[in-house]
Structure formats: C-alpha cells, structure tokens
Design a protein that fits this description.
hydrolase activity; CinA-like_C; Nicotinamide-nucleotide amidohydrolase family protein; 5 strands; alpha/beta; hydrolase; single chain; CinA_C; 160 residues; 6 helices
C-alpha cells in the first residue's frame, strides 16, 4: 500500500500535479498513506473526510437529490464527490470513495464489501468503478485504499 503511494508521488511530483482525496468509508486512510511519503507536501493538496451525507453536500457540493436517488454508495455520488473535491481545492487529480465496510449496513443490492471509487483529472469526466471486497471491516477498507491508489496511478499515467 505504501509502495503504491510512493509510486504515485513520483508520478505526480514529476509532472507538477497535485492530488485531492474525498473519503467516506476509508476515513482518511488514503490521505494518510500519501502523506507518509517524504515530499508529499509538493504534490498532495488536501483531503476531505466526508462520512455523513450532510458533509458530502456541505463540503463537496454533492447535490442532495443525487444521494436521495442513487444512495451514498453509488457511481453518481462518488463522481460528484471527486468533482467537488477538485472544485474546492488547488488539485488537478482527485480520488473519491464511498462504501459499506460492515459488519452491518449492507442490503441485497449493496452488500457489505461494496465500494465505489471515482478518479478524475481536472477538465475530464470522472472514471468510476464498483468493487466487491471480502473480509472484515478493516480488510474491506484496506482493499479500498489499495484500489484507490492503483486507480490513481492508472488514471494519472494515462493507462485508464
């Protein structure tokens, strides 16, 4: 996980780009990983931890009707989170995550382990992807962080 953050830092720092994170179920873990990399102040702008629906709306500008219609754990919500993070930062690359880490909170349509991620470059559309991770709460969150970092590397290097 931390090696991925290091690779991301080399990529972003080498291109003079800055990152913003918008996290729900990971609770700031992505930001913690990237700030563990020496020199991250040169490429990490800020992180938003928006655990409640209200914070997604207030801090990131996610429209209430998006959450009401699609739910907090959806492609539409994470795309809005990523766009909002870019709009409320000096970054040009964003990642957003929302999911159901468990052990409760799942449903037949969105079981525990369901995580949506969005990656977005300034001026481009968000790329979203749904994951279904296995394991306990910590395992789901860890896998989400890894997927977020891998996706950032892909999107920021132009391979996705």
């Amino acid at each position: 996980m931390y090696d991925l953050a290091g690779r991301l830092g080399e990529l972003l720092g080498g291109e003079g780009r800055r990152l913003v994170t918008a996290e729900s179920c990971t609770g700031g873990w992505i930001a913690q990983c990237v700030t563990s990399v020496p020199g991250s102040s040169g490429w990490f702008d800020r992180g938003f931890v928006t655990y409640s629906n209200e914070s997604k709306q207030e801090l990131l500008g996610v429209p209430p009707d998006v959450i009401a219609r699609y739910g907090a754990v959806s492609a539409e919500t994470v795309a809005a989170m990523a766009g909002g993070a870019l709009a409320h930062s000096r970054a040009d690359c964003a990642v957003a995550v929302s999911g159901i880490a468990g052990p409760e909170g799942g449903s037949p349509d969105k079981p525990v382990g369901t995580v949506w991620l969005a990656w977005q470059l300034k001026g481009a559309m968000a790329v979203t992807r749904r994951f279904r991770f296995d394991g306990d709460r910590q395992a789901v969150r860890r896998q989400a962080v890894i997927a977020a970092l891998e996706g950032l590397i892909d999107v920021c290097s132009g391979t996705d």
